[in-house]
Specification:
The chain is of the alpha+beta class and 303 residues long. It has a domain of 170 residues. The chain is built from eleven helices and nine strands. Strand 3 and strand 4 form a beta hairpin. The longest helix is centred in the last third of the chain and has 42 residues. The chain starts with 14 loop residues before the first strand and ends with a helix. InterPro entries: Puta_zinc/iron-chelating_dom. This is Zinc-or iron-chelating domain-containing protein.
Length: 303
């Protein structure tokens, strides 16, 4: 007879290790009549994707910069410090949008909230050009939705929750992150300017629009009048932002540039870069000498 293993509470997880597909049938439903309604929103930990911010900032009548400042908190998504954002909560960890009657921004709620009960897993094998999408159960102990009478396929549940639109737009962004992870050490840690571009292009679409409309951008990239007009649409501009990130981070050339412009910019900035490098080296040597002298002095004192 197999031994039953009791897992201490601190090691238990709500994530059930079973990969689901679109055709998997689940028994789940969440609605105002369920006894645990709103509990998940009162212990919120919601990571936001780009399209989440487009929908919420429009719903609230804010710019993306205003929304980020008022309704999000930053965090690092990996060991390299890649920036991400989460929904801000109150001092009790409750979502700022939850009310007794439910979510006050329900029609524009983030993808993570729409998926609740399930989780999305995108995987790309190292060296592969394609990612594979799976799902898994997020079966929290308080959740009574898993005791509902609704039997539904994952595909139909996603459709019911309005997830496909979110996934379609966020997919390119998720592929960027997967590509960075699957490339491993080959990519290395991006520099601070790359992180700034990544954050702006991913989460701050209104600031990104001003960047694209700037003379500095026009000196490097070739855009048509039709492009500039189309970029007034947030979704079209967001997809362009993903293309730009691919070009800057992974050298996937899809946006035309002026001839030799990058070489010219390098020549213009070469002296400045070399001076900064020289100053950094001199500072490093100075600190090393100070540490050496301190160590010598310490040894003499002990003697």
């Amino acid at each position: 007879m197999a031994e039953k293993l009791d897992i201490p509470e601190e090691f238990q997880s709500s994530l059930v290790p079973e990969l689901l597909t679109d055709d998997t049938v689940i028994q789940f439903n969440c609605h105002p009549g369920v006894s645990c309604f709103n509990i998940c929103c009162k212990a919120a930990d919601v990571t936001l994707a780009p399209y989440d911010i487009l929908r919420l900032k429009k719903r609230l009548g804010m710019t993306s910069s205003e929304f980020l400042d008022k309704h999000t908190v930053p965090f690092e998504t990996d060991g390299h410090g890649t920036p991400g954002v989460k929904l801000r909560t109150d001092e009790t960890k409750a979502c700022l949008f939850v009310r007794e009657e439910g979510c006050s921004v329900y029609a524009d709620r983030p993808a993570a909230c729409r998926y609740y009960g399930l989780g999305l897993l995108s995987h790309r094998a190292q060296g592969s050009a394609e990612d594979v999408q799976y799902y898994f159960r997020n079966q929290e102990s308080h959740c009574q939705g898993w005791k509902s009478e609704q039997f539904i396929t994952v595909k139909d549940y996603r459709q019911q929750q309005g997830v496909p639109e979110y996934d379609e737009i966020n997919r390119e962004w998720m592929q960027l992150m997967l590509k960075k992870k699957s490339a491993g050490p080959a990519i290395g840690k991006p520099d601070p300017l790359s992180f700034q571009l990544y954050f702006m292009a991913s989460f701050d679409i209104d600031r990104f629009r001003r960047f694209v409309e700037s003379p500095a951008f026009a000196k490097v990239y070739i855009l048509s009048d039709e492009d500039r007009t189309a970029f007034q649409d947030d979704v079209i501009l967001q997809k362009f932002a993903f293309r730009l990130l691919r070009q800057v981070l992974f050298d996937e050339q899809t946006i035309p540039t002026h001839e030799n412009v990058l070489e010219k910019r390098w020549e213009e900035r070469k002296d400045i870069i070399e001076l900064r490098h020289k100053a950094a080296v001199e500072l490093h040597l100075k600190r090393a000498e100070e540490e050496r002298q301190a160590a010598l002095n310490s040894g003499m004192d002990e003697a």
